[in-house]
Amino acid sequence: MENSALNIVVLVKYVPDAQFDRHLIGDAHTIDRSESILSELDEYALEAALALTDARGGAKAGNVVTALTLGPASAAVAVKKSLQIGATQGLHVNDDALAGSDAWATSLALAAAIKTLGPVDLVITGMASTDGETSIIPAQLAARLGLPQVTFASALEVDGGTVTARRDGDDYSEEIQASLPALVSVTDQANDPRYPNFKGIIAAKKKKMTTMSLADLGLSASDVGLAGSLTTVSAAAERPARTAGTIITDSGDAGIQLVDFLAAQKLI
Amino acid sequence: MENLTPDQEAVVEMVRDFAAVELAPHTAAWDEEKHFPVDVLARAGELGMGGIYVAEDFGGSALSRTDAALIFEELAAVDPSIAAYISIHNMVAWMIDAFGNDEQRARLLPGITAMTELCSYCLSEPGVGSDAAAITTRAVADGEDYLINGTKQFISGAGASAWYLVMVRTADLGSRGITAVVVPHDAPGLSFGANEKKMGWRAQPTRQVFFDNVRIPQANRLGAEGDGFGIAMKGLNGGRVNIGACSLGGGRAALEKSIAYLKERQAFGGPLIEKQHLLFEIAHMDTELELARTMLRRAARALDDGAPDTVKLCAMAKWVATDAGFHVADQALQLHGGYGYLSEYGLEKLVRDLRVHQILEGSNEIMQLIVGRLAVER
Question: What are the residue ranges of helices labelled H in chain B?
Answer without folding.
Answer: 6-18, 27-33, 38-46, 65-76, 80-99, 102-113, 228-264, 276-305, 310-335, 347-355, 364-377
